[in-house]
Amino acid sequence: MASEPVPAVRTESLNLWYGTFQALQDVTVRIRSGAITAMIGPSGCGKTTFLRSVNRINERLGYVRTTGRIEVLGHDVQGAGVALTQLRRQVGMVFQRPNPLPLSVRDNVLFGHRVHRTPDAAITRAEEEPILEEALRKVLLWDTVKDRLGARATTLSLEEQQKLCIARLLPLQPRILLMDEPCSALDPRATGAIEELLWDLRGEFTILIVTHNMAQARRASDECIFMLMGRVVEHSPTEEMFVTPRDRRTADYVEGRYG
Amino acid sequence: MFQPTPVDLRNRAREGLVRWLLLGLTLVIILPVLLILGVLAWKGTPALSLEFLFTEPREAMTAGGILPALVGTVWLVAVALLASVPVGVAAAVYLSEYAPDNALTRIINLAIMNLAGVPSIVHALFGVGAFVYFFRFGTSILAASLTLAVMSLPVIIVSTREALQAVPRAFREACWAMGATRWQTIRHVVLPNSVSGILTGVILEVAHTAGETAPIMFTGAAFFVPFLPEGIHDQTMALSLHLFIISTQVPGVPEPVPFAVALVLISLVMSMNAASIWVRTRLRRRKKW
Ligand SMILES: Nc1ncnc2c1ncn2[C@@H]1O[C@H](COP(=O)(O)OP(=O)(O)O)[C@@H](O)[C@H]1O
Ligand SMILES: [Mg+2]
Questions:
Q1: Residue B134's domain is classified under what CATH number?
Q2: Is residue B39 part of a domain?
């Protein structure tokens, strides 16, 4: 038997508390490398919390406590030698509300790249230009913003802002993209555009996307994880989850009989 | 159609009442300010002249000008800000961006609040003990300015911290999630977006520092120094102390002179404020979200 490829993200009995409230309970999952995995479940079931544990951004809140194991690309991210800056370079995150930085479009796209390059790498503006263009082309934004690269990113439409938030991750060459309801602030047409983008990026990145939109989960993902009250109820290939769910609670949820 | 109901009429009446009440209270605040400025301008202008601004006092301060005091106040305020702004902003950045929410942090915050409540004469005594004697700065601009700086730290820290906190957390998270360190985040996103708020605190403290008398009285400001300070180790005259002295300690000062001194002091503060407000408005125009 061929050895199974290393999962992009693997957790083992992950528990997380906000103060005394337990938001994740015994979460054990394997996120397949190179696939799009959708996380679904009612509000407050812990999807965002899970995503934010993977890049360890949750721990900036002083009252968060975790137990269990989180591996990214086969490595324990809570190990002693882990540089958070490198972890976050490999694991990009797109937030629920588009949050471009209050800088120009250009500075937004190049922000991560500038933060990570060595101080002596004297890169001129001309050398940054191809990086900028490639990232914006990949999210299909180049043609719309190429004439306003100096404009404030916050003046773009929400759809453009969210695409920009994806684009700014690309120069870092991440392996995994965590997306927390990236379309929830967008109208249906913009949602469609972002979904298409996801398909384009598929294969190149492992994508873990949280969504409230069942149709979107079904259309846009290879695997699905259904969570309820901090636990993983079911994790299966998307078609299977929607056609022949194993758990009655999953069936109730995907058919909309649930909150 | 669309006739107001009794409820609408009642709400409308209440709306009018509140509006006039708020306007009235605002005027109550403005009135004393206008009155003070008016009286000062009316009574002080006769004594104002270029000679008054640019010469030294003569004849036991009953004649001549106020140049040493004017220059001295500028020195005191400038040196005080040079000390208090970097320290205050650094402390606020630490408290807002780095400090964990624990007992020590809460104690520090409490201490800052208490420092804000210390009367200025107590600051003066502290300044004498700490700067004049312990650090051996003597009675000098340095000692007086550091005393003023300590006095203005709480306001600068608190207002800076508020300004930093007003920068949405989403921006910080966006940076962190790209692998930026806390300092990179602060340097490139948080500070540039809070300078205008930080300046507000600084503006308040310019006025406060320029006007205080007690903290400088024993630490560096002198009754009468007939020449201009040449460095931070000199003693100096100051407008606030000069005003106090000629109004209470010196016989035979012509009546308009104290008013003119007060007018100059207020104008100095107002022009410094105007400058900072201008800077702040320009920075705000570049704002951002
Ligand atoms: N910063 C926080 N502090 C305290 N409780 C939180 C925090 N964030 C989320 N929670 C709680 O944790 C649970 C899971 O939240 P979340 O992960 O945001 O759910 P989801 O993204 O699935 O809607 C909710 O009950 C929520 O109230
Ligand atoms: Mg959520």
A1: 1.10.3720.10
A2: no
Least distant ligand from the CA of A96: 2
Number of domains in chain B: 1
Q: Render each residue's pLDDT in chain B as its tens digit; 289 residues.
A: 889 999 999 999 999 999 999 999 999 999 998 999 999 999 999 888 888 888 888 777 777 888 999 999 999 999 999 999 999 999 999 999 999 888 999 999 999 989 888 999 999 999 999 999 999 998 999 999 999 999 999 999 999 999 999 999 999 999 999 999 999 999 999 999 898 889 888 888 888 899 999 999 999 888 888 788 888 888 899 999 999 998 888 888 888 899 999 999 999 988 888 888 888 888 777 665 5
Domain annotation for chain A: domains and CATH numbers: 9-100+174-254 (3.40.50.300)
Nearest CA to ligand 1 atom 4: A18
Q: At residue A21, what are phi and psi to the nearest 5 degrees? A: -85, 125
Find out whether the beta carbon of A16 lies less than 6 Å from any atom of ligand 1: no
What residues of chain A have any CB closer than 8 angstroms to a CB in chain B?
55, 57, 60, 62-63, 84-89, 92-93, 95, 97, 99-103, 111-112, 115-116, 152, 154, 165, 168-169, 172
Instruction: Measure in Å the smallest separation between the Cα of B171 and chain A Cα atoms.
Output: 6
Which residue range is the domain that position B87 belongs to?
50-285
In a domain? residue B2: no
**Ligand 1 probe mutation, A21, A65, A210, most atoms within 8 A of CB:** A21
pTM: 0.86
Q: In what order do the strands lie in the sheet with A223-228?
A: A91-94, A176-180, A206-210, A36-40, A223-228, A231-237
- Phi first, then psi, for residue A158 (nearest 5°) are -60, -40
Domain-embedded: residue B23: no
Residue B105: inside a domain, yes or no?
yes
ipTM: 0.90
Selecting from B100, B174, B181 the residue whose C-beta is nearest the C-beta of A99 gives B174
Strands A223-228, A91-94: parallel, antiparallel or unpaired by DSSP? unpaired
Give me the helices (H) in B45-119, please: 50-54, 67-93, 103-116
Which of A95, A101, A112 lies nearest to residue B179, judging by beta carbons? A112
CB A48 near ligand 1, within 6 Å: yes
